[in-house]
TrEMBL record:
It comes from Notiomystis cincta. This is PKHH3 protein. Residues 1-141 form the MyTH4 domain. Transmembrane segments: none annotated. PROSITE patterns: FERM_3 (PS50057), MYTH4 (PS51016), RA (PS50200).
Amino acid sequence: TAPGPRSYTTLRDEAVKLFNSLQQLESERDPVPLMQGVLQTCLDLPPLVDEIYCQLVKQTTEPPAPGGQGDLHYWQLLTCMSCTFLPSPPVLRFLHFHLDRTENRFPASEMAKYACFIREALGKTKRRECVPSLEEILVLMQRQEMICTVHCPGAPACSVAISSHTTAEEVAQELVSRLGLSQSPNLFALYEQSRRREQPVGSATLLADVLTRFE
């Protein structure tokens, strides 16, 4: 199941716990659950978002082994952060400086590719309702898109590639075009269905958040 509500102590104590999690991340063989836990804490406690961004910039500046597994784990979490939260303007400027510096120092490296991906994500990111699902984190670590399956009445299921920023309206428009319904006078929307209920998905809703709820 997706992470649910947690009980927290003081912001200072939670910041220390997050710092310890980041230290553990460097040597973690399966970093995905730990990354999701950090993201969930930031979603629940927004004042810690800037703190984690600053810590990740620090960890990816002059690392002992540039491009090593530990270094890339930090870049991968930074990628997930950039698709989930926007930092405050001063931290955002600091982050952009760090991304530019990394691309200049390590051109064509994995770090530079993450830096480029993060910069593009920051231009699209809006506050999320949910943290990325485990599947989304895995594809973000590879700088790829997710495949979303949509079941259409009277037509085969359609597979649609989505990013962390794709809205329900954008997917609905793509499906209308694929199915040749562009000239139809009807209105089209996406619905999410579970055992207990079926409800329309708001046009501005991020599909990635819907998938997290299903996870």
